[in-house]
Every structure is written in C-alpha cells, then in structure tokens.
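User: Hey, my collaborator sent me this sequence without any context and asked if I could get a structure. I don't really work with proteins. Can you help?
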Amino acid sequence: MSSAGPVAPTATAACQLRPLPLGAVRITGGFWAARQLTNRLDLLRTHPADHRWLEAAAWEYAREPADDLRREVTAAARRGDPGHLIRAAIARVRGTGDRELLQTAVEVADRLVAHPRRAVDCHPVLAMALVELFRQTDNHRYLELAGRVVDAGDPTVSGYLVAGAVDVATERDDRERLDALADLAPDPAPVGAGVQWAWRMLLATGEPSYADTADRLLRDGFARGDPDGMVLLSSLDNYLATTDADGVQLHLYADAEVTARLRDGPIRLTVQADDARIRVRVAEAPRREWTLSMRVPAAALLTVCGEPPQPTCPGTYAEVVRTWSPGDVVDLVLR
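Assistant: No problem. I've predicted the 3D structure and written it out in structure-token form, which is a compact way to encode the shape of the chain:
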C-alpha cells in the first residue's frame, strides 16, 4: 500500500528524514508483535469508552481491516473529541481510502476555523491532528489554526502540544522554533506524547538522540502499563524506519519486514531483533551504492557480510555504504 502513514510531512517540509508509506514496514514477530496482538484483542473486546480507543481502533483497522472495528469506529466518532476524531479519520482514509469519516472531520475542523477560540480549549492532540489534516487536504487554514493552538498553549504542559509545535515548525520551515523545541523535552507520560515529539524531532533533524529517546520512552511506558500505549501499538510499524535520498535508516527494532524505494529501485529488508543481536538481511536492492543506517542502542560490534567485526559507538548510527546484493547480512551484536 502506498498511502501515507500517521505522520506525513509535505514535500516542502523541513525534514532530514522521510517516513515510509503505510504498510512499508510490518512487524512480523517477537515481543512487539505479541503486544500488538494483545492490543487488537483488547480493542475488539473493549467498549469504546474514550478518545484513545477511537484513534487506536482506527489505526488498527488500517493495519488489518475488520468489519466490527469499522462499525465501532464509525459509531464512536460521534462521541470523539475533535483532535482524536480527525486523527481517526486520517487513519481511515490513509489505510483504506474510505473518506466518509474524513468528511465528518473536515466539517468539525471547519467549525473550529470559524470559531478558533474553541480550538484552544480542545485536547492538546488537536494541533497534530490539524497539521495532518492540512497534509491530507492541502487546506492551509488547518495549518494556520494549528499554529494558533500551539501559540495559545503551554508546550511544557503537554507533550502532544510540543509534538504539534514541531509539526507546525516543520511545515513552515521555522528553524528558530525547531531549535527551541529541540531543548523542550516533554513530560514522558503518557508514552504516546513523548514518542510523538521524539519521532517528529527525528524526522526534522536526523539526530539519533531522538530515536534513543523514543526507544526509551516506548519501553518505559509499556513497562509501567501506560494505557495511552494502545494508540501507539496500533501504529507502531510506522515508527521503525525512514528513508532519504541515500538509503534506509532503522531506528526502533523489532522482527520486521521493511520495504523502501529509492529513485532507481526498491529495497526490501528483513530484520530480526532480540536482546543480543540485530540482524538485517537484504532481500532486494538496486545495483548501486546506498547506505544502510542502523541505530546503535548500546555497545556493539558490527559485522557486514562476514567481514571482521568493527566496534560501534552507542548513540550514533552505524552506516554501511556499499552495493548490496540479495542475501547480504549485517549483524549488530550487542555487548
């Protein structure tokens, strides 16, 4: 599927890295696949009681459609707050092409544009939602309203508002604001808010420290049973990898299949990840040099296609530039 994922900067946005399309990364096994399955079963069993369920179920439906989820999301949308309603509509249209919920979201957003003071009082996730609606519809009024929401709020209070501020600054190429936001680490609870901020800063800057932060927040949040994690689990596949003109970057690790496309051909990778080793196998690649970048989460040795292992530096990316062939294997052995 070639549709955009949860975060889809426009072509002119100030981004060093680009998210992969929806469906380009698929978690296939291991710890995070098990958590996603549990999350899906919980969503199917749980009565939609709050806005978190609405957005989580919409992304879960985009990941793997089911009629019962579609019906429940449509019904729950009538009770959803504007921010999560819009984000659920984005998930629906990008995951399935169904525009019914998007039309409702547009109507809600248009009412807020007409009465902007109401937008300031909404859930702080609204700024992110409005920027994504702008990206989906190319209606600049939604970006302008997102900027007003951010300017009227206090980013130190909500990680969601910080993430929305990064979105606005990225689309406006506002380097001064991005620099200020780089030092404004949000409250790590709930887990989704912190990861959303870290991911957006990673896209904007390409700095590995933000991937480290996202990884830490993700693991800490699920260790303490943060209920906000249901939204993140439903869309987690979309936060593992990115691309740029030179190649593919792996940020968060899980057993997964990754597909990307450079100008001259597709790249397909399989990833196996555990506490001792991260192995990447090339299944398909263009016949020219490109760069595979792997985040180094801890002290590790890097082995490329059976060559002698090389030390790496935690907090950086191990970058391997070569002309790859199907069957090539890279091992990041953690020490």
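In plain terms: The longest strand covers residues 265-273. You can pass these tokens on to your collaborator as they are.
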